[in-house]
Amino acid sequence: DKEVRAIFLRLFAQLFQGYRSCLQLIRIHAEPVIHFHKAAFLGQRGLIENDFLTKVLNGMAFAGFVSERGPPFRTCDLFDELVAFEVERIKAEEGNPPKMIKHVRELAEQLFKNENPNPHIAFQKVPRPTEGSHLRVHILPFPRINEGRVQELLQEGLARSQGAPPATRGDKKCVVPAGPPVGTFVCS
To answer: For labelling alongside 97, which of 29, 55, 74, 134 has CA 20 to 30 A away?
Structure first.
């Protein structure tokens, strides 16, 4: 699963190499408005006649991609690192399948670590009951639930949650690396 995702991550990193140099921030407040220069991107990469990439750039998914990933100050991730710093590595691996597979496996491992930062907690096993445990007499039946007490606990929890400050994610925002300009990529 992660290796397939890593392959697509590399593919989109190759397709969109240098896209940040074709972004123009028009307005910052109240919500940023970002414009992507498709013609400049395609022209500098020598892909004006490429129907597939033109259709990708004209699609709604790419518009969402630009609005989400266009701001210069946001939380960075693995894709940003690939587009900004791994351009030469991806180019060098084009004719060398073993190196490409090694890189895909490294990316897959990083994707796995991102989703499961504490694998020992995420994959905790519940021990199986011992054989014949259901036949033991000394095990008490599950007690009846007191509906009044349940309501009290719910009200206490709601009162505590209303007075607590809102929870925030621990993502750190940073300046997104621009990577090399589009003119350095000429694709066939």
So the answer is: 55
pLDDT tens readout for residues 138-154? 767 778 889 999 999 99
More confident residue, 7 or 125: 7
Q: Is residue 128 part of a domain?
A: no
Question: Is residue 104, in this structure, part of any structural domain at all?
Answer: yes
Rounded Cα distance, 58 and 61, in Å: 9
Domain containing 8 equals: 1-117+170-184
In contact, 47 and 15? CB cutoff 8 Å: no
Domain count within the chain: 1
- For 109, the token pair is 């491992």
Helix (H) or strand (E) holding 35: strand 33-36
147 belongs to a structural domain: no
| Host H or E run for residue 67 | helix 60-69
